[in-house]
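Narrative progress, year one. The postdoctoral researcher (J.K.) led the effort to move from monomer predictions toward full complexes, under supervision of the PI. The following entry was the first complex the group processed end to end, covering 798 residues in total.
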Amino acid sequence: MITVAEHRARILDAVPSLPSERRSLADALGCVLAEDIRSRWPIPLFDNSGMDGYAVRRGDAAAGAALRVIADVAAGSADDPALGRREAARIMTGAAMPTDADAIVPLEDTDLGVAIRETAPAQITILRQPDTGAHIRRQGEDAPAGALAVPSGTTLGAWQLSAIASAGYDEVLVHRPPRVAVISTGSELVAPSTTPLRGQIPESNSVLLAAAVRASGASVTSVSTVADDPALLRRALDEIDADVIVLSGGASVGAFDVVKAVLGGERGVKFDNVAIQPGKPQGFGMCESGMLAFCLPGNPVSVAASFEMFVRPALRTMAGAGIIDRHHVKRIAAAAWRCPPGRVQVLPVIFDDETVQPATSGGSGSHLVTSLAAASALAIVPADVEHVNVGDEVTVMLL
Amino acid sequence: MITVAEHRARILDAVPSLPSERRSLADALGCVLAEDIRSRWPIPLFDNSGMDGYAVRRGDAAAGAALRVIADVAAGSADDPALGRREAARIMTGAAMPTDADAIVPLEDTDLGVAIRETAPAQITILRQPDTGAHIRRQGEDAPAGALAVPSGTTLGAWQLSAIASAGYDEVLVHRPPRVAVISTGSELVAPSTTPLRGQIPESNSVLLAAAVRASGASVTSVSTVADDPALLRRALDEIDADVIVLSGGASVGAFDVVKAVLGGERGVKFDNVAIQPGKPQGFGMCESGMLAFCLPGNPVSVAASFEMFVRPALRTMAGAGIIDRHHVKRIAAAAWRCPPGRVQVLPVIFDDETVQPATSGGSGSHLVTSLAAASALAIVPADVEHVNVGDEVTVMLL
């Protein structure tokens, strides 16, 4: 038996981050940046107005002063109207500041003049004198040209993508997200919509794994179910084109453990008992084809736990992510439960701001698929804890 | 000026949850279930073995007893071998229990017999007597037939999809996720990869909105940028086929505020000043076409804040979600900052397990696009707070 840390280290040591590729911003959501993005320009690009209003010479714009409106500066306009004494230019938020002006008077600090639509008023009266520089956004005050806008290694959400566009790019270099094939093994598995005969059960692990892979940001290249027949599994494996294969079932010591029978023959793939519950029998390694294989046990809760503990961190590493783990928090146990001696327990749980408890009261068996439906997190209980008591502090991995 | 709560209530009152549709499980990740899923069968479906090992009559299986192995029960097999005195059946995890057996002896509690691969051993010796019922998973012990497996209203993650498959379904009724069109308005906007002239800036709001819409689980039907020209905007709007249009820019009181000029003519669309910073000028309502329109201000941080405060809750409501808001936590301010009097402040922040601080030290201006790149959350400061001091407790909306 090896520890969870040993198995995890073995996996992460073997897992490369994938080569980078150029993607449009529209296609890069959730990807990890593989280059530093530096702004092509100062941000803002030029002095501009922070308000809709009037660009004025501050000295002319005392409360009560009447100014002649001699120009209109719209957003996008390259105009730079000259302002004489007691002259103002109407200006829109974001429009370039006239060189002669040194303050903005917001619309609401004027009498609005004669007409505020279509045609600019000929004259406005100032209600409140602006400070010098009021409502002017200065060129480069947000960032100078060449400033680091988004560092390499950042996972790209909406906000980061927006910053990259502002920095002057419509494409980025990102790590290619891993391409993953999912295989469920087991002669007992039938399609969920059929009526199972004695000994048969609806196939659900591929549904879980495909969705979990997608939710991790990786793509699913194929999903298949294979009976406990080495020739069929060999053929299914030969047809796969992916970076990673995630198999469920057949990784134990049973006589019909087809995954172990087939992949156990690969030099690079090793099967171990890992000190974890559920999910003890685990296989991992690189096939001769160059694809990484994860061989997980066949029970749904084992699959869910193994995916979160071992597969997802590997997929995030391949995707280039700096933070590969889910967020962990501490919660107080609101119920007591038993833990397997000498094994890390990974238990589907529900939690609130303060407490945590098992998702089902029925037990902690690896076959309790309904506990998954109700759960929103996994409690991670260290191997040396044999009993969680009410009031104990528990580590919870949020999903 | 209306309050944030008033604007939000007006939006949520007007927003329907969308009709439901049937989807395959592979296509339902992130959708909200529109029906109760009840298990078609008891789970487990039949008494089965929880371990690889031997199905025995417990009374025959004292430590040291030698049992004749008379059958092999593989996973998926419908066999029900009769067991006589001192007979055992080799059985795989998940395989149906022989009716005559009342316990499982795991492989590791036997001498493994003669051969453990391919051919079953003719005889095994028991090392440890099992308890009655040991390692038998009983039919229905997880859930009886008809039990509620996943309730209507659940957002479907990998675990819930797996439970639905186990319950016997390969399709589900889900709320249709909203289809959203994104329009950036502004004559100053140019494609990010071009070199802007005086007065021009790279268009980034549509990048932000499209990604934020997708990340919310909705789909993006079109993304466009339109100059400040009512005829062009009218034409762009006429071409849209979506449930929701999210516009940025042109919602204020400026002379060229094209969104207000065009959509202000729609009876159902209302423009308000909302007591929020950034994001004060907001438009919302139903167009005559039946599409809902959100008219957001044009600054990137305003767009980000408005999306999280107003648009995303509406999209989640349309998608049928019960929980429409992001998770909020409390953190202690590690820096001081000023807040606008009388307006809720929505500030891009960074945070750790204990503290929170603004994502940039440069200020809280709505144009600080770089603050978005660094931020991973929004601080939400109530309208009556004018200054956050170091040590103050702050509400943080996690993304």
